[in-house]
Design brief:
By secondary structure, the chain is α+β, with helices and mostly antiparallel strands. It is 35% helix and 19% strand. The chain has one domain (2-114).
Length: 142
């Protein structure tokens, strides 16, 4: 289970990034902006915004299909960036490709309130669980 996401970046107008993750799109967007130590990565001008997250059983397969479908819009053949002045056009294409995917029948609609709540919960839980808990000194353990 995972999702195919569409990200935008104010520093890259007219481009969308389409990729997949088995975490949440919010977590992936943060990874693209900050390293594991929380420092900003210099390769992107500003944070990515999640324009859309399409949940599915096989996100890698869906990502491959949407990349093939949108190949003519690819900004760089070696990157996951596509030229779309309006992200809504890319979102519509992704939904169309997802509906044609054989495993689509098992998927929960990405716009459902349950999916949105689950995604937000997992993002918050992940942030809490990634906090480092101090290890008690040996004499404090008993």
């Amino acid at each position: 289970m995972g999702s195919v996401y569409i990200l935008t970046n104010k520093g890259m107008p007219g481009l969308v990034k389409i990729g997949y993750t088995e975490r949440t799109a919010e977590e992936r967007a943060e990874e693209l902006y900050r390293d594991r130590n929380g420092r900003a990565i210099t390769g992107v001008p500003t944070r990515f915004d999640v324009a859309h997250e399409e949940f599915c059983d096989n996100p890698k397969e869906l990502e491959t299909l949407i990349h093939q479908e949108l190949n003519e819009f690819r900004f760089n053949k070696d990157r996951e960036f596509f030229t779309f002045p309006e992200p809504s056009e890319a979102i519509q294409k992704l939904k169309e490709v997802h509906k044609r995917q054989p495993s689509h029948a098992n998927c929960v609609n990405s716009d459902s309130p349950w999916r949105k709540w689950t995604s937000q919960f997992l993002t918050r839980f992940s942030k809490l669980s990634n906090r480092r808990t101090p290890v008690p000194k040996e004499e404090e353990q008993f």
